[in-house]
Structures are given as structure tokens and as C-alpha cells.
Specification:
2 domains; mainly alpha; 4 helices; 155 residues; 0% strand
Length: 155
């Protein structure tokens, strides 16, 4: 009978230790999952920040492309304007000189009109718009018309 009681106690002790081992395994599994979740959240946060940086980089690339396209259009317009001026053909010198006075004359008249608007109007927005338009026209007409330096050939 003593063997039977000892056998029962051994079975009970084995069951208790088995339950304790299972509980410890579950507790350890809980902490492992918590650490895995924290690591996963950190990875997701990193991927999110990386995605934001990529979006910002693409936005900057788009802005640069738009700016380059605008500059290219501006240069194309200036080039066409200069080509149109240069294609006046063969004419007498006084006609060419008279044609060359058109822009300065229009600019002078534009600034006289702008000064009149500036002095007469009581509305500051109108005066600012007139000054802006006159400045933009002046810079467009004379902006890049300075003589180009002569290129020197190597001697």
C-alpha cells in the first residue's frame, strides 16, 4: 500500500510540476510576444518614417522638375524673342536704328504712365500692380540683352 501511496504522490508531484512548467512556459511566451510586438512596432515606425522621407523626396523632385520646365520655357521665349529681333533682314541703317528705339521708347512711356498712376491713385493695390507690371516688362525687354563677352581662342 505504501508503494501505491508513493506512486500516487509521485504522479501528483509530476502533475504539479508539469502544470508549473506549462505556466512558466506561458509566462515566458507572454514576455517573448511582448518583446516581438515592441520590435515589430519599432520596425513599422521605421518603415513609416522611411515612407514619409520618400514622399518628401518625391515631392521635392516634382518641384524641381516643375521649376526646370518653367525655366526652360522662359529661356525658349527669350531665345525666340532674340531670334525675331535678329531676323529683321536687310534694311537701311536708319530703319534698323528706329526699330532698336521701340523698346526703350515703350519702356520710357510705360514708366511715365506708371508714375502717373502712382501719383494719382489712392488705391495702394493698383499702384503696386502698375509698378510690378512696369518692372516685369522692363526686365523682360532688357533682362538678358547685355553684350556677350568675346570668346578668346587659345594662342
Amino acid at each position: 500500500m505504501a508503494d501505491l501511496v508513493g506512486l500516487g504522490l509521485d504522479a501528483a508531484a509530476g502533475g504539479v510540476f508539469g502544470l508549473i512548467g506549462t505556466a512558466l512556459g506561458r509566462v515566458a511566451g507572454f514576455f517573448e510576444r511582448r518583446d516581438e510586438n515592441a520590435q515589430e512596432q519599432a520596425r513599422w515606425g521605421h518603415e513609416y518614417r522611411l515612407h514619409e522621407l520618400n514622399m518628401k523626396a518625391r515631392a521635392q523632385e516634382s518641384e524641381i522638375e516643375i521649376e526646370l520646365a518653367a525655366q526652360a520655357g522662359s529661356w525658349a521665349g527669350l531665345k525666340a524673342s532674340i531670334a525675331a529681333e535678329a531676323s529683321s533682314g536687310v534694311a537701311s541703317r536708319w530703319v534698323i536704328n528706329l526699330l532698336r528705339l521701340v523698346r526703350p521708347s515703350l519702356t520710357f512711356l510705360l514708366w511715365i504712365i506708371t508714375a502717373g498712376i502712382f501719383l494719382q491713385t489712392q488705391n495702394q493695390a493698383i499702384a503696386e500692380a502698375a509698378v510690378f507690371a512696369a518692372t516685369a516688362a522692363t526686365l523682360w525687354w532688357f533682362g538678358d540683352r547685355a553684350p556677350k563677352p568675346l570668346s578668346r581662342s587659345p594662342s
